[in-house]
Structure formats: C-alpha cells, structure tokens
Amino acid sequence: MQNIARLRADTPGCEGRVFLDSAGSSLPPRIVVDTAIAHLNREAEVGGYRAANERLDDLHAVKTAIGELINADAATIALSDSASRAWSDFFYSVPLGPDDRILISGSDYASNAIAALQRARHAGATVEPIPSDSSGQIDLDALDAMVDERVKLVSLVHVPSNGGLVNPVAEAARIAHRVGALVLLDACQSAGQLPLDIAELDVDALSTTGRKWLRGPRGTGFLYVRPELAATLEPQRLDLHSAEWTGPDTYRLVDGAERFEFWECNVAARLGLGAAVRYLLELGPNQVYQAIAERAEYLRKTLSEIGGVTVRDRGTQHAGIVSFTVDGHEPVDIRDRLASANITVTVSHRGSTLLDMRARDLNSVVRASPHCFVSFEELERFIGAVALLAS
Ligand SMILES: *Cc1c(COP(=O)(O)O)cnc(C)c1O
C-alpha cells in the first residue's frame, strides 16, 4: 500500500481534524469527488443524457470494478442508492408463505429487521433471531439446531453497526444451505475494510453501501445476486430498465442482477463509486484491511487502559469499529465534546441494533471507526481527549 503521507494527500478532508467515522460516512479520496463533480459539470454543459452517453464504458466499468473487489462477474451486480434499498430489493423478491421462517442475526440492523417483520406479518411467516454465542458472534450450534426446511431466508450481518466483531459468515451459510434456505449478507460494514470473496463466503446475495468503508459518494450502494438465483427471482417493482414491454399484455425481465435496477440514477455518484472502488483496488484490499485492523486494535487496547472507559466490542475476530462507553457520561455528550476538539466519532443507538443492545442492557455506545488514512498521531490525540473527559 501507499505510505500514509500519500494516503493523506489523496484525502483532502483529513487535515486539521481527527476523522473516526468511516462506519458512518467516510472521507472520500480526491479522485472520487473530482469524478463526481466533473460529471455534474458536464451534465450542466450538454444535458444529462448526452453526458451519460459519453461515459457508457466507464459506467459499465463500475460493475466490473465491484466484481473484481468481491470476486464476482459484473452481471451479478445491481447498482443501488443505499444498502437498505439493495437489501430490501432482494429480500422482497424472495417468495414467502404462511408458516415460513426468516432468521435474522442477533446483531442485525434495524432496517433489515423491520422489513422482515413487515413481510412476515403480511405473509403469516415468522421472524426469529439466531442466538449469539458467549463471544457475541452468531452461535453456529444454535443455528444448526434451529434450521429446518421451513426456513426460507437467513439474514446474516457480516460486521454489525455497533461494534467490531466479524461473524462467521461462510460457516453460517453452509448451515442455512443444508436446508435450502437463501442467505442474504449485509456487508455494509465489511465492504471496503474486510477483503470480500463471494466464492468463499458462498452467500446468495450481498448488499452494501458506498459511503462507509468504500469511501464513495452518498446515495450509492450495490447488490450482488448469485446468477442462477437472479434468473428465478422477480423484483417487487419493475420499470423499463429491469424489464422490457414486449406486447400489449406482456413484459420480459432482463437477465442478471440488472433486473434489480431502475433506469434513473445519479450518474455522477455512480461514477464516483466506481472511482472509489478502483482506488481501493489500487491500494490493495488486504493492505487496507491490515491498516484498519491495526488502528482499531490499538484503540481497543489503549482505550481499555483508561480508567472509567469500557470497550464494548465483542467477538473473536475484530474489524474496524471500536465501541465504548465512559462512566458518568452519555455517549452523545462524549461525541459532542470530542467534536468541539475537532474529533469526529458517532454514537450507535439502541434502535439500530435493538436485539443486541437490549441483551447487553445498553442504550447507546460511542463508535470510533478509523480508516487507513488516519495517522497514529491522530489516534493519540483522540485517546488523550477521551482520557481527559473520563478523568
Ligand atoms: C449503515 C448500515 C446499513 C444501512 O446502510 P444504508 O446505506 O444507510 O441503507 C445496513 N446495515 C448495517 C450493518 C449498517 O451499518
């Protein structure tokens, strides 16, 4: 990977502040911002249609780059405007009937759980959480014991929104597939930090957002759908891009994951997402992951040495999210006090990961998520500021 000076020079936003919110909405590299702005300017000159036509190859290359990142074919990728949109586009296309079962992760994300509850209510199906083991990860034995052929879909969250654990996805997928259930992976907090390989993960679908660890523009995301499966699923909503009007009473779905896309989109943002993914590929996803993991591990270690600070991360394999609380201080106050020192962290609230937070009797946690462009000197500044607040 490039040295840190180069990474920081590529990231204009990082100077003069300590940015620890790549789990929320990261700082994009300059190439991402430049790509998106250049396209907006071109649209203003020649109109959106001609501007897009000039970039058809580059637009297709966005999916090629994403495919390279996750080891999948470009035709298996649908571009989307958020992770939740991508997740639900797939989820609502899976047939569901009375007495069917949907399993969700113990640290699943609120939007996924809400969609599951809504569909279950309409279909007469049930939603059941997979228990977490003593480390907080998906309990594989419990999952093994609870699956049967009534389970139609298992929602796995790779890395939860509220802490740095990494779930054993491939193992859980194997158990789900034994009974013929589909596996939908929420990779919102893993794409862009953990190397992702569809062949290894062996999930049926994967959703993620652009703005977090991938460092793309807001309003972007993508969905991967296993090719043989995409051919059998009909999205809940169609338009003239996802289907073709073939006769007065007929239409035909397009092939591949493209059937999960609508025609209209923010072309500038998509090109920006492509630039973000290419930038990551050039840095090397493994090196980026190493850099993030080192920073997060350092924060966990040093934070836990400060009196009154409790690191809340669970799991045995860790990722780049570091969650903690400070005795006698509300997490939102910690966030706001750090913000006045030009240090950006966020708060993860109970409602985002309700089951997990309830089980641990937590209302909220402070969330620090360093990307590879954050220097150790900046981490020291953050640690010093937390220590001061805790004392
Ligand atoms: C942020 C997040 C989402 C939602 O992403 P959007 O792009 O806001 O829809 C889903 N799952 C997890 C685990 C998240 O952290």
TrEMBL record:
Keyword Transferase attached: yes
Which InterPro entries does the UniProt record give?
Aminotrans_V_dom, Aminotrans_V_PyrdxlP_BS, EgtE, PyrdxlP-dep_Trfase, PyrdxlP-dep_Trfase_major, PyrdxlP-dep_Trfase_small
Return the broad EC class.
lyase
- Which parts of the chain span the membrane according to its record? none
Q: Which keywords does this chain's UniProt record carry? A: Aminotransferase, Lyase, Pyridoxal phosphate, Transferase
Q: Which GO terms describe its molecular function?
A: carbon-sulfur lyase activity; transaminase activity
Known EC number(s)? 4.4.-.-
Q: Which family does it belong to?
A: Belongs to the class-V pyridoxal-phosphate-dependent aminotransferase family. EgtE subfamily.
Q: What does this protein do?
A: Probably catalyzes the conversion of hercynylcysteine sulfoxide to ergothioneine.
Please identify the protein, giving its name as recorded.
Answer: Probable hercynylcysteine sulfoxide lyase
Q: Which organism is it from?
A: Nocardia uniformis
What does UniProt list as this organism's lineage? Bacteria, Bacillati, Actinomycetota, Actinomycetes, Mycobacteriales
